Amino acid sequence: MAVLPDALVEYTMNGTPPARDGNRDRHLAPHGIFRAAGHDRWIAVAVEDDAAWVRLAALLGGPELASDPRYATLAARKHHEDELEALLTSWTSERSPEEATATLQAAGIAAFTAATNRDIAEDPHLRARGFFVELPHPEVGTRQHIGIPWRMSASDCRVRRPAPCLGADTDAVLREVCGYTAAEIDTLRAAQALA
Hints:
The protein is an alpha+beta fold.
């Protein structure tokens, strides 16, 4: 039997929609996206249990913070979540997201840089895995495209062509999907019903 999330059970049984809580999680604290040093830079952090909290507290303020009754248990951290998030933000905002990520991960805390488009485009791991493909486009020339994020042993998972131009596939869709004849497509085009 599958276990349903609390919010789904509450909605199913009582019709009560879940309260908005942004990036917060009912069972983790802190949990969210926190400002880092730099223009519009962020880091995702998730503290999964009390042991992870002790490790994070050592980074933020030392052992006395770990035993502070306001944060010592999940229930206490949830009750003081605004203060806790402000404390974490004061730490992350003084570091680049990459530095904060490395420090937190080294301490066994789930964390990662909230990647910008540039971060993704320049990621050395994605490049090494062949994630990006260069394809010629008829209107803008050769451009980098995001590839398929997985590989399959028996399927050819790859980007085969660049993004189509407006109307490039209209005839094929009308013919192959909708079953229109060439004469019907010509009639639609003459009536300026097609792009």
